[in-house]
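Justification of resources, computational component.

The compute hours requested in this renewal are based largely on the per-chain cost of generating structure records like the one below. Each record pairs the submitted sequence with a full structure-token output. That output is archived, and it is also reused by downstream analysis tasks.
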Amino acid sequence: QVRLVESGGGLVQNGGSLSLSCAASGRTFSSYAMGWFRQAPGKEREFVAAISWSGGSTYYADSVKGRFTISRDNAKNTVYLQMNSLKPEDTAVYYCAAGPGDPADFGSWGQGTQVTVSS
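The structure output for this chain reads:
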């Protein structure tokens, strides 16, 4: 298992930008795929973005494609989510997650960080 700690959430205006970070501990970080999910009030948790263990492949939900960018630095055991052109509907708790393969099978989760976009 990998221990994950998110940071970088906050309040931003419509159209603004935020960058989230997820620091991981554990020797298996560099061999794990990583991802970001989010959960808005009253809604189910949804997939946002994922990145392969090497960083060579990235995947995005249609709702964030072209606005969000996921990246990772295996030397720093950190994964990032750069969020641009934020919208009020992006307001949610954002969770970092990790696993050996498909995001649907991610088994390690962070505690979450709140992102609020004001209109």
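The radius of gyration is 13 Å. The mean pLDDT is 95.
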